[in-house]
Fold this protein.
Amino acid sequence: MSSSPASALTASAPPPSESASRSPWRSLRHRSMRWWSVANFVSNAGTWMQLTVQNLLVLQITGSAAATGLSMSVQAAPALLISVFGGAAVDRWPRKLTAAVSQALLGAVAFVTALLVALDRLDITSLMVLAAVTGVIATVDGPACSLLGNDLVPVEDVPSAIGVGALVHQAGRLTGAALAGVTVGFLGTAAAYAANGLSFLFVASVIPFLRPARGAVRSAGAAVRTARGRRTADSGMSVREGLRFFVRRPRLLALAGVTGVSAVFGRNYQLTLAVLVTGPLAGGAGSFGTVSTVLAVGGIIGAVLGARLRRPSVRVVGALAAAGGLLQVVAGLSPSVAVLLVMVLPMAVVESVSDTAGTAVLQTDPPAHLRGRVLGVWGSVGTVWSLGGPPALGLLMELAGARGALMAGGLIIAGTIGAGYVLHGRRPARAVQTVADATATPTPALGTAA
């Protein structure tokens, strides 16, 4: 590349004719977004390489499947407890600096783990401590990196940026899982952790050269400086402000309800479909592998379709979630694996489009200086669903079987969302304005009417 890094990463304004594009790839016309997507792919591949190796490493050290599950819970636990504080940090600090530092710290943890593995000094206690530290850093890194990508593109291209991010995540997951086996086989377990450390450093080195495109939402750093000029708040008040905004925002509460009921009674297809395929449908591991592949393909197709959205709303998310619930009911009635495969593809597509639309609403509805805190609240709520959903679904499967769980879960999803639409339609419209709205500088936003 003949140009300097700074000039290569400087975003160029799109021609006027491109502003109305519905292409799922429209965000990639901005140079900084292209570089950010490459960096995210490298980082995702390294992360999934480490996650794959980490599970094997825990099994090797302890010989216990329960310990493997515990290590995953230890890493997820900080999101439940301190995500709101991580989101507040993202709003208070310059976003690019926050993302670069958090990526560098994650890289340092990976290198420390690699060194301990290479010296044969890693035991289960130190591994759990490192997993917990990773989880704490991730409470800042997650919202910082998510919002940084949105800062690089015009507001109408945010759904495309989110859809591209979903594709990068899936591609990185597949690549990382594949590279894990090759890396461990030829270079050893420590090399996988070291590779992940290098991937984080690569991202941290790219971030300083990123430049927002013309028409992008004002960066968090500018919003924070403006907000600080208007008011002074301690960190506790800052966190409470994010919580207050979230609970006073009907569309965000509706989004949380739709996502929550879908997360608990659907989506855990690796559990429900595994039992259905190997049980009532008399399939084997190969059949379930085929189902999993179709789910992944559907997720990729859905991410592409979701990236075409220009004005996602909570209504769109709810309608897609209800449709997914009804498809889940039909999937529960499948008489054979072949019929199940036909139903699984649209289920995965609808789920992926719904996720992209919901993420776009979540990341664009709050004013810029509150988005980190809103994502922090969302991280805590989402962790509750991810930890509570599988046990609840497992209990439902114990009571009703795999078919019954799929059908009952799908009906609960569709029925709950339908009831919500009815109640919302009967409620008189009223203007809702929070303190955050009154003090925020107006910025263009996607249509996100609940």
